[in-house]
Task: inverse folding
């Protein structure tokens, strides 16, 4: 996983609540067996017209947001399916951070596994950042995970909190399977106990 | 012996599966059953391969093919779509390479992952169950803790049989009294989501309780738990009782004899203790629930079938008004229009929400002796090969075909628009599935979620209809 430390970039405004994972990446694009290449179909139903041409009204088809690295949205971002293709599509497009008032649980988890930082901030703050984002290229936003602050284009710093374990893994780009493997003796002894007490769970 | 603090069903299953608690409170949670399918696993197996890892417990892992495949006879001659074919072949190759048990595509046990787990007796009370699919919440109906995970977590479970999890909050939703005539588990869960909203359960595990839940059969409980994720909670559960035990006794792979007796001893300790703490309590009266149908593009946009399309102009909150305007426009509606005036093009009875034998019986009871309306395509997609076989043994396929319904092979079908069963732009469907998001059943498709009986009524009426006006003409 790519580490996330600090990012300064263009933020795209997506002033919608309940952005579901079928919007982020529709199911018909989930057939790839790779993690890569989903970016071209990110928000496909909004980005492209029925004939396949770009919809100029959609924010990610406008300059400078084609190069957006941050996405600002409203409540319950990432609801719906568990597809990790949603953060893969964001990442493949170039978006490394999503800021919203809250996130659906599974999407929130999936982001951390892929170096995409989901930042929860109060609705009013998201509304301010949304206005900042609308200023386009003149309004770069900084997301600093080390210091846990978002820096607005006017220099104002907005603090946020990330779970300490997740922050550690993200800052260092660590694979959590490797971390869990260090607990193998504990898993072994759990299995011995469980197998004795609940043998029907074992073939 | 000191008295233990009263615990919930969730607390008990959680406590029994904590391998270790890390200093920050994160638990390393043991997983008893890992179900897999073709869509969310290829990248996980790639990760294992790259790291030189294997599957820790193949005996606790089971694969099945469901999302991608056609539900017509073309599955017998090979998958037409090359990307789908590759994804299915990849699962088959990975299963062989890593020693993962896989139900073959043409096996009679093949079906939707959330139908086959309980049906085969693999999903049992007290278990922790995961799958790379948000509707894993379905298995909570067995009295298990079951939730959906992403592909990285699939890889984590394959390699370690554990997950890193933070404890969830406890929510209890009690549905008291008797369910009204014409209503089912689907109507209960749609009414619940209408009440709590699509994010109402975020961060919680929901235990469903009350007389109306107790009175549901296992299929009805699975429908309720299935759509828990649509209310934002990752897991929903129902305490095991005699209905659960009778169901398990009929499954091919559930524990038998002495093993069952021993398992039952533990299962009977699982229901929530009197006085256990719930962070949130919600109550509904079952008799106030009328047959439900969604009108908008998330499951919270739901009304009784007797309702009318709401008017966004009457909403004061700007963000909500904008969202509602978009829903009305996308769905091709007029504020004030009666829901029963909405003509449907397609009726879909199936999906992990409603494709079990009980669901097909409910649809067939309405279809019997009637005809699908002109211009309506109505399809019934059983949840598994075993459901299909059981329905055919009861003659339900014949009743449905005589009424003009298509009788298809098992799979996810038109629930999610990734296999050949899709809506075309502008088509309106009455669907027993779980998500009415924009484009969910195909780009531009318009989805109304409802129960199997309501879907069958819509098929014969040609428009959304109140099932209470279409009661069975003859006994099945």
Result:
């Amino acid at each position: 996983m790519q580490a996330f430390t600090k990012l300064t970039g263009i933020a795209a405004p997506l002033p919608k609540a309940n952005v579901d994972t079928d919007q982020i990446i529709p199911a018909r694009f989930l057939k790839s067996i790779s993690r890569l290449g989903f970016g071209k179909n990110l928000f496909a139903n909004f980005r492209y017209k029925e004939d396949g041409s770009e919809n100029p009204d959609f924010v990610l088809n406008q300059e400078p947001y084609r190069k957006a690295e941050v996405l600002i949205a409203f409540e319950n971002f990432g609801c719906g399916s568990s597809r990790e293709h949603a953060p893969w599509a964001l990442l493949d497009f170039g978006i490394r951070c999503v800021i919203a008032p809250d996130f659906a649980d599974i999407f929130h988890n999936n982001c951390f596994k892929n170096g995409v930082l989901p930042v929860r901030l109060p609705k009013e703050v998201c509304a301010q950042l949304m206005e900042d984002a609308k200023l386009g290229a003149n309004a770069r936003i900084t997301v600093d995970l080390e210091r846990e602050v978002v820096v607005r284009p006017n220099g104002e710093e907005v603090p946020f909190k990330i779970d300490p374990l997740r922050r550690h893994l993200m800052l260092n780009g660590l694979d959590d399977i490797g971390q869990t493997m260090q607990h193998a003796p504990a898993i072994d002894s759990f299995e011995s106990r469980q197998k004795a007490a609940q043998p029907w769970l074992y073939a | 012996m000191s008295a233990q603090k009263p615990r919930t069903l969730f607390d008990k299953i959680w406590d029994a599966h904590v391998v270790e608690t890390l200093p920050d409170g994160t638990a390393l949670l043991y997983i008893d059953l890992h179900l897999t399918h073709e869509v969310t696993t290829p990248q996980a197996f790639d990760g294992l391969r790259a790291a030189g890892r294997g599957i820790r417990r193949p005996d606790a892992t089971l694969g099945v093919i469901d999302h991608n495949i056609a539900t017509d006879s073309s599955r017998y001659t090979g998958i037409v779509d090359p990307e789908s074919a590759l994804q299915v072949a990849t699962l088959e190759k990975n299963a062989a390479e890593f020693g993962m048990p896989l139900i073959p595509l043409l096996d009679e046990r093949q079906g939707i992952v959330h139908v086959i787990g309980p049906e085969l007796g693999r999903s049992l009370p007290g278990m922790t169950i995961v799958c790379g699919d948000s509707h894993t919440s379905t298995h909570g109906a067995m009295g298990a803790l079951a939730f959906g995970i992403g592909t990285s977590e699939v890889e984590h479970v394959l390699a370690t049989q554990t997950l890193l999890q933070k404890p969830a909050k406890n929510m209890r939703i009690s549905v008291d009294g008797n369910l009204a005539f014409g209503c089912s588990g689907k109507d209960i869960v749609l009414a619940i989501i209408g009440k709590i909203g699509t994010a109402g359960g975020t961060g919680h595990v929901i235990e469903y309780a009350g007389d109306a839940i107790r009175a549901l059969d296992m299929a009805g409980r699975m429908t309720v738990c299935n759509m828990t994720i649509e209310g934002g909670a990752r897991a929903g559960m129902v305490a095991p009782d005699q209905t659960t035990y009778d169901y398990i006794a009929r499954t091919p792979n559930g524990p038998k004899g002495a093993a069952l007796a021993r398992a039952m001893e533990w299962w009977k300790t699982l229901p929530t203790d009197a006085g256990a703490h719930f962070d949130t309590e919600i109550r509904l009266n079952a008799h106030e629930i009328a047959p439900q149908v969604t009108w908008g593009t998330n499951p919270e946009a739901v009304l009784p079938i007797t309702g009318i399309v709401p008017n966004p102009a009457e909403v004061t909150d700007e963000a909500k008004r904008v969202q509602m305007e978009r829903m009305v426009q996308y769905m091709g509606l007029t504020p004030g229009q009666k829901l029963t005036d909405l003509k449907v093009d397609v009726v879909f009875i199936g999906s992990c929400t409603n494709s079990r034998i009980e669901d097909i019986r409910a649809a067939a009871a309405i279809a019997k002796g009637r005809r699908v309306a002109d211009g309506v395509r109505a399809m019934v997609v059983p949840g598994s090969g075993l459901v299909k076989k059981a329905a055919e043994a009861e003659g339900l396929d014949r009743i449905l075909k005589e009424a003009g319904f298509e009788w298809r092979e098992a799979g996810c079908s038109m629930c999610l628009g990734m296999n050949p069963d899709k809506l075309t732009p502008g088509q309106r469907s009455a669907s027993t599935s779980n998500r009415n998001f924009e484009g969910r059943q195909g780009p531009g498709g318009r989805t109304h979620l409802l129960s199997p009986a309501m879907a069958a009524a819509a098929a014969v009426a040609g428009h959304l209809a109140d099932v209470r006006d279409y009661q069975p003409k003859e006994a099945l």
